Amino acid sequence: MNQKKSDPNNKTVAENRKARFSYEVLDTVEAGLALTGTEVKSLRQGQANIQESYASVEGGEIWLINSYVPEYLQANRFNHEPRRRRKLLLNKREMARLAQSVEREGMTMVPLKIYFNDKGRAKLLLAVAKGKKLHDKRETEKQRDWNREKGRLLKERG
Length: 158
What we know:
Elements: E1 12-15, H1 17-22, E2 23-33, H2 37-44, E3 54-58, E4 61-65, E5 86-89, H3 92-105, E6 108-116, E7 122-131, H4 134-157
Antiparallel strand pairs: 1-6, 2-5, 2-7, 3-4, 4-5, 6-7
């Protein structure tokens, strides 16, 4: 495939890299986002942040809370609220499964990344995750350091 780097499709807008360190990801779901026009334009500029955001089940629907999409500068009075709650678009079966795992098994829904799919639609990769304990985080860090060191040693030896 011959795709350009400036292609607006298949572009990661925001990524929550800390989530994989703080949580043990058990399952992922691709969800659509209910956005306004100015939010989409702002996302295309690639300035969103989902570091401290999470998803929650309220009234039979799933909402993305505390995600930051900056205002679109050219939109004047029709602009959006940067930290507003955004509805996630999932089918009923997926919503029920996610809500059940959160309520019954004590897991959380953490957004991993926002991106544009092949059709140019904004999507959210949502993970069902369990929080890691401190010793698990240390183990992850040790493993990462060892892999980095192993790569260096192999590179030196040839």
